[in-house]
Each structure stands twice: as C-alpha cells, then as structure tokens.
Sequence to fold (374 residues):
Amino acid sequence: MPRLGLLPATRLANLVSGFAISAWAPLIPHVQQGIGLSSGALGLTLLAFGAGSMATMPVAGGIVGRIGCRRLFALSGLLIVLTLPCLALMRSAPALAVGLFIFGSGLGLISCARNLHGLATERALQRRLMSGFHGFYSVGCVLGAGTMSVLMGLGMPPLGAISIVAFVILICVGLATPAITSEHMGSGPAYAMPKGVVLVIGLLCFIVFMAEGSVLDWSAILLTGHFRLDAARAGLGYVAFATMMTAGRLSGDRLVHRFGDRAMLTLGPLLAAAGFVIAVLPSHWTLAVAGFALVGAGCANIVPLLYSAVGRQTVMPSNLALTAAGSIGFAGVLTGPAAIGFIAQWSSLTISFLILAALVGLVARVTPGVLNAK
Fold:
C-alpha cells in the first residue's frame, strides 16, 4: 500500500472512526425487524454498545503505554472490520448485545488511539490541528451513514452493504496505520484516576458531550412538541446542528490560529448557550432550528481544544490523562440525554434546555483557568 504523509494519515484515521460508527445506524431497523425486538428491548440492547466503549476507553491509555498507538489503531480497526458484518447476522437479542459490546469496545479503543496520535501530530508539527481532525471525524459520520443508505437504497441486502463498508474501513486502516505514531506515549498503570486539571477537563467534556447528545435525542421532540412540526421536518434541528458542527471543526484550526485558544473556548460555549436559549423561545420553529445551528457552531471546537490542553498539561502522562478525561466526557453522551428526559418529565423540556444553557455557559467561565494550569 502507498504510504501516506503524517497529516493525511491522521485525517484519515479520524474519518474512518466516524465512518465506522455511523455505518451501524442504518442497520438498526433491519436488525430490529429481523430479531423482532420491541422499541424498549432494542433500547436496552443498544446499551451494550456504550458499555463496550466505557469498558475499554479508560484502559486504552495503559494499552498505548505498552504497545503504542500504531498497534492499537491497527488492532482495534481490525476488530471493527470483523464485527460489523456480524451485526447484520444477529438473530437474537443476547447475540446482538455481545456483538455490540465488542463493536463498542473496538470503537472506544480506536477513538483513544486516533486522539492520542492527534496529540503526537500536533507536537510533531507544532500546530493546533485537533479541531480539523475532529472535523474529519464528523465528515466520516456523514459518509458512513450516507454510504449505507445509498447501498441499501439501491436494493443491496444489509449484509452485502455492511460488508462493502467493512472492506472500505479495512483499506483505510491499512493506508493510515504506517503513519500512525509507534510512540508508546508514556507508561504506568492500565488506568489512573484523573486529578487536578485533567479531572476539570473531563468534567467540562462531560458537559459538552451531554449537550451534544441531548440535541441528538431531544431536538426533534422539542420541534414536534412545542412547534407542532410534522415528523418529516422534525430532524431539521439536528441536521442544522451537525452541519454547523462539521463546518466549525473543519475551519477550527484557522480560527484558533487567528483568535487563540482562550477566545475560542470562551466565545464557543457562550454561543452554544445562546443557541439553547433561542431554541426554546416561544416564537417560530425556524428560529429554534437556527438556535440548534448556533449550538453546533459553539460546541464544535470545545472538546478538540480541551483535548489539546490535555496534551500540554504535566499533572499526568498524556496517554493516561486523555483516556481518563475522554472517559468522563463520553459518560455525558450516555447519561446526559437520560437526565434531560427526567428533568423534562419533572418540569418541561424548555427547562431542561435552559439548564443545559447554564451548564455550557459555565464552561466559558472555567476554561481560562484550564489553559493556565500545568
């Protein structure tokens, strides 16, 4: 295979991670129908995916300390390639849960490998690049879901479509792997409890991931419930959010170079907080969609810049620090939307989004201290 340069390989590593995770989404209705799962049973089974990621992400830093990013990236990519087609073959809920746990484990490991390699790339090139890397992850999400939808829309069976996707992932992993850093990036225990600035960064990531997950799960509910929008247009809120987040990340490195980390980590959360407030104003649904677009633009570069800050701190080795902070952040994706649902049941969805606005606004207040900490 041809050898890619450092920057193209890092972008491809992030793209293939998003491509893999989103390719599973169009398969869900087919798997549900094939097994005969109710919506509730499917929801419980899907928890296995998050459990797999949460089980491996905290220890990924320790693994990198022993075998290096390159081997972890290649092995986790191979695990994903082998698991994806199997998901289309599952004919029982327990088997699907096991498959999703393994799939989630592979994605958790490859996510940590790509982010640690991203930190190494930033150090090697002495440039802020993490926002752009995460932008390619977002592009991969669009391409993965789009590829599966097109293939199945052309009449290809789900197993054939996901097998083609898995083959594409295998090629991309093979192309990127030689340029992934072989550096072990520190040593130490398999997992270390986050402390100091690393713990603060993890909690900030938790808030931002919680906000992102809540838009995914609840924006359509807001549009249909508050504005009586029909189901065909209910997804426009998330489309606006995802589009602006992708655009914001792809342009993020240039913005950081021009305005600096501090300005981006202050204005971004404030913009997202304003977006949540605008989204719940009792006016018109188009303004709500615009509000979710602002949330996407504001959140776009917060986590990438916080990950870069993890790479610069000296409290913990970067391999252990990033996986610890990332694990706390990822917990926000799993628990945040559920918490929003409980708050909405207790009060209203408007109150839930306003609480999110306050929490995201708090990120703007805390991040200057994070940038100053070592």
Notes: The chain has two domains: 6-179, 197-367. The first helix runs from residue 6 to 23.
